[in-house]
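Hey,

Quick one before I head out. I ran the complex with zinc ion overnight. Inputs first:
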Amino acid sequence: MELVNLTWKEAEEYLKKRRDVLLPVGAVEEHGYHLPLSTDVDIAEAVCRELSRRTGIGVAPAVWYGYSRSTRGYAGTVMVGREELKSYLRSILEGFAESGFTRVYIVSGHFSNDHLRAIEEAAEEARGVEAQLLDFSRADFSDLLESKPLHACEAETSLMLFLHPEKVKMKLARDEEIAYEGDVLRKTESGVFGRPSLATREKGKKLFERIVSELERAVRV
Ligand SMILES: [Zn+2]
């Protein structure tokens, strides 16, 4: 159920039954030669929709822009500052509180540490509402993948092959060696960090199932 498709009277009815909502958060950033700028939002929205189907919790419209410093400088990456993201999210969460919601589950499709920290801080500081980041990036997928999840990698590409095959230009996918400059990943030519050539739709299906099952447990407790 998508919250924005409701009229306000229907939203009022929803709030008589339950007061929780799922909020997808993404980033508008490069994902190599083969995946669109929308990838993080696409994945977060798909996870939220499936969770909604299984639990009845409504899905709020996504927050598109995130903090994505490591992909800065590639055409199409548009980020906001860490503090701006935090304060915008806090304000959105308090907007939910004002509207009558008491719990917001945040699902991010983008995983840089600073981005996730900004979400967690916003969730902690928001007044009048219990907000919680459902962070599936810390789950163990090692039995499903041959390479470590990084960016536009085997994991993300597999998920997109399963969720949005029409958006994947698999012929253009390029594996890139990972190198660090200090503690920052060195930029790669294609913008990939990892091995998208290992991606398959089947892996994406299994990954998606595991992600949704993990989060389903988290929202049901
Ligand atoms: Zn991504």
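Residues 3-220 form a domain with the Rossmann fold fold (CATH 3.40.50.10310).

Talk tomorrow,
K.
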